[in-house]
Design brief:
Length: 265
DNA sequence: AGCGTCACCCGGACGC
DNA sequence: TGCGTCCGGGTGACGC
């Protein structure tokens, strides 16, 4: 995604570019409508802007909206049409002016949506945790609606948008909260701490351009700054206790047993 | 409503 | 070397 960032030297802005046609090497990339209809409709439309909502990339078009979800191994690159393709390029939007928007996706989990009304997908999402409107009171209100384990609640995109497995573990460590705490057991102080932890973890990820995990290199450096994620057995950066791992809601979960006690105080 | 489980993917890591 | 198996990310579907 770094190559899409506005102002990258040598790269034009996507806004204003017209899509001539699409190459679908993995038709199941297209979530909706059918690949055939997607192919027919996308041609001739113009990208007006580039935005983000939760984990979705949002491309408002002159007619309708294109949403892209990268899932775990997806990457978007804006490249000259003549440049060599990536081995895992699955979907390619051929743009005017000799550019291509290439969706590389080794594990084929990503999705594209072409929608008249993007709220069909986006309206299910909770608030953006980095926006000013998201205060600790917002967080308290969202969590109080449920009585469930804290970590699955944070991963639920309808509670808060944008937190994945890495950021959830990092945020919980920063806030000193055990992943299995119940959402309705948190004190005001703990909610505040969690609010700070979520925002700090996300900002840190942004600072380092996100993370690259496994062998799927995506440009970021955040993996070298994880406090607990995939650091099982290593010393907690805060207290030195070995980082523990457990499975919560089918997800690998990393935490410090000392900084994040199961019982509050 | 919340929770568990499975499916979707694939290439790297690991064990034999 | 060549197998087999496990792993993990986010989400939706399904059953309880």
């Amino acid at each position: 995604m770094r190559s899409l960032r506005e102002g990258q030297p040598g790269l034009p802005s996507l806004a204003g570019m017209q899509i001539e046609r699409v190459t679908l090497r993995w038709p199941r990339h297209i979530a909706t409508p059918s690949p055939a209809v997607f192919r027919r409709r996308i041609g001739g439309r113009t990208i007006c802007d580039v935005r983000r909502r939760g984990k979705y990339l949002v491309f408002p078009l002159d007619r309708g909206t294109l949403l892209i979800h990268l899932k775990m191994s997806g990457d978007l690159r804006l490249a000259p049409a003549a440049s060599p393709p990536d081995r895992f390029d699955r979907t390619v939007l051929h743009l005017r002016q000799g550019w291509e928007l290439r969706f590389s996706d080794a594990r084929k989990f990503g999705k594209l949506y072409l929608l008249d009304d993007p709220s069909l997908v986006l309206s299910r999402l909770g608030p953006e945790p980095l926006e000013r409107a998201f205060t600790h009171r917002t967080l308290a209100r969202r969590l109080a609606r449920h009585r469930r384990q804290l970590k699955p609640a944070l991963l639920d995109q309808s509670v808060i948008a944008g937190l994945g497995n890495i950021y959830t573990d990092e945020a919980l460590h920063r806030s000193g909260l055990h992943p299995l705490r119940s959402t309705d057991s948190l004190t005001d102080g703990e909610i505040r701490s969690l609010w700070r932890g979520i925002r700090a973890a996300l900002r840190n990820g942004l600072r380092y351009d996100g993370a690259s995990i496994d062998w799927v290199y995506r440009g970021g450096d955040f993996q070298n700054h994880f406090r607990v994620y995939q650091r099982t057995g290593e010393a907690c950066p805060a207290c030195g206790t070995p980082i523990a791992r457990m499975v919560v809601g089918q997800r690998g979960t990393h935490f410090c047993p000392t900084c994040q006690p199961e019982q509050s105080s």
